[in-house]
Write a structure and sequence with these properties.
- With 103 residues, the chain is mainly alpha-helical.
- The protein has a domain at 32-103: Orthogonal Bundle (Cytochrome Bc1 Complex, Chain D, domain 2), CATH 1.10.760.10.
- 50% of the residues lie in helices and 0% in strands.
- The protein is built from 5 helices and no strands.
- The longest helix is centred in the first third of the chain and has 18 residues, at 4-21.
- InterPro entries: Cyt_c-like_dom, Cyt_c-like_dom_sf, Cytochrome_c_Oxidase_Subunit.
- Residues 1-18 form the signal peptide.
Length: 103
């Protein structure tokens, strides 16, 4: 037991030092794979220079409401009705959150 105490102290010190020395920035959290489906038309960050609307920075509630309306068929569009049907309500919330946070 007496040999174990110094070892535990050494391990605790090493852990504390490694936690203090870790100053590298953490990588941004990856976005869910299905967000990339929007990139083809709306651009990689929700901005595009075309007739397709930019969705970057739009209000989260607006994006969520609009996607759910496309999914339900109560809002008409050329392709969005079909695309929105492929997402669960939870995925729609994630999409709305992601694009609302883009600048």
């Amino acid at each position: 037991m007496k040999r174990l105490l110094p070892l535990l102290g050494l391990l605790a010190s090493a852990a504390a030092l490694s936690a203090e020395g870790n100053t590298q920035p953490t990588a941004p959290a990856p976005f869910p794979y299905f967000v990339a489906n929007c990139f083809n038309c709306h651009g990689t960050e929700g901005r595009v220079n075309s007739a397709i609307p930019a969705i970057a920075g739009r209000d989260k509630a607006y994006l969520e409401e609009t996607l759910k309306a496309y999914k339900a068929g109560t809002k008409q569009a050329t392709i969005m009705n079909q695309l929105a049907k492929g997402y669960t309500d939870e995925e729609i919330v994630v999409l709305a959150d992601y694009f609302s946070r883009q600048k």
